[in-house]
Amino acid sequence: MADTALEIDDVSKRYGEVVALDSVSFDVRPGELFGFVGSNGAGKTTTMRIALGVLSADAGQVRFGGAPVTHETRSRIGYMPEERGLYPKMKVLDQLVYLAQLHGMTANAAHTSAENWIARLGLKERRTEEVQKLSLGNQQRVQLAAALVHDPVVLVLDEPFSGLDPLAVDVMSQVLREKAATGVPVVFSSHQLDLVQRLCDRVGIIRDGRMVAVGTVPELTASGASRINVSVPSAAPGWASGLPGTTVVAEDGERTVIELAPGTDDQTVLAAALATGPVREFSRQTASLSDLFRNVVTEEKPA
Ligand SMILES: Nc1ncnc2c1ncn2[C@@H]1O[C@H](COP(=O)(O)OP(=O)(O)OP(=O)(O)O)[C@@H](O)[C@H]1O
Fold first, then answer.
1. What is the helix (H) or strand (E) element at residue 222, kind and residue range?
2. CA of 19 relative to ligand 1 center, distance in Å
3. Which of 285, 286, 244, 251 is nearest to 267 (CA)?
4. Keywords of this protein's UniProt record, alphabetized (predicted)?
5. Rounded CA separation 226/21 (Å)
6. What is the residue-wise DSSP string for 198-214?
7. How far is the CA of 214 from the centre of ligand 1 (A)?
8. Of 85, 111, 79, whose CA–CA distance to 98 is shortest?
9. Can you give the pTM of this predicted structure?
10. How far apart are alpha carbons 142 and 45 in whole angstroms?
11. Residue 227: its pLDDT value, please?
12. For the chain, how big is the Rg over CA atoms in Å?
């Protein structure tokens, strides 16, 4: 089942009067790390639970490798639920071995895999401790191990980075990258947009149960306005005002931030800057997922 995509196709879900998902579609391609972002209550957990099959959709379909997700496929998904869900009194190693066997591994294979992930995730000294006695961050590492221990062909992780220290964030990031590099589609939700931008191949933004953007960050930010930072020490204040196709968004001492309307040639701005005297800095601001997110979640809703 390697090299197959996870497809969420036109999925809708209501909880009574609440429309949690309204025709949500996106796909997570083989080998891809896909970041799923949205405000609180936007519908991420609901989508992921439906993808896993622990919740049924009212309409639409989830497919893996082109076929609807079945009980068999489901057992090959690695899932990290938001509410977590380990057995608190079970010891780390026992728990992982048990979960791997539950997913169909032999006792030997389960043991080997559990020990591998324990080592990989820095849990060796904790392997015989009860999960409930671990710190939250370490519990989360165990939770990741639980999602990986049965060698899943798809990974669906609900906020795997929340509450992790920077070192654990690095470990988690590396593991997810490595897993994707083996051809597995990996989707995770997160509110840490800088991290999502750094780590993910593509992102999907959900708002009030509807997908409002799907693509790479450069694709999603390409059509919007871009900003440049200009530093002109000898310019008079207001030197940039009135340049066609531009808006001055900040002026702080010698530094001016100028927003270019789509299609505006930045060389016109450079020429105007040079006309004031020496130019110390002239650089484009990298478009950020945070800016894009703010724009799409605060836009007026379509009628
Ligand atoms: N069991 C439930 N019963 C009723 N409404 C629910 C239930 N679960 C979720 N909802 C509602 O469905 C919508 C989507 O919730 P969901 O948990 O999927 O959002 P989310 O994007 O994961 O949010 P968060 O970032 O806060 O985890 C919300 O309006 C939520 O209140």
1. helix 217-222
2. 10
3. 244
4. ATP-binding, Nucleotide-binding, Transport
5. 32
6. HH-SEEEEEETTEEEEE
7. 21
8. 111
9. 0.84
10. 20
11. 86
12. 24
Q: Which residues of the chain have pLDDT under 50?
A: 1-2
Burial 254-273 (b: 16+ CB within 10 A, else e): eebbbbbeeebebeebeebb
Distance between Cα 172 and ligand 1 center (Å) = 25
- What are the chain's domains? 6-215 (3.40.50.300), 225-286 (3.30.70)
The letter for the amino acid at 250 is A
Look at residue 292 in the predicted model and tell me its pLDDT: 86
**What's CA 30's distance to the chain center, in Å?**
16
List all residues whose CB is within 6 A of at least one atom of ligand 1: 15, 18, 20, 38, 40-46
| Adjacency order of strands within the sheet including 281-284 | 246-252, 255-260, 226-231, 281-284
Looking at residue 86, its pLDDT comes to 86
Per-residue H/E/C for 95-130: HHHHHHHHCCCCHHHHHHHHHHHHHHCCCHHHCCCE
In sequence order, the 6+-apart residues with CB closer than 8 A to the CB of 85 are 143
**Which tokens sit at 1?**
């089942």
Ligand 1 atom index nearest CA of 16: 4
* pLDDT tens digit sequence for 224-256: 678 899 999 999 988 999 899 999 988 888 899
- Residue of 143, 186, 185 whose CA lies nearest to 164: 143
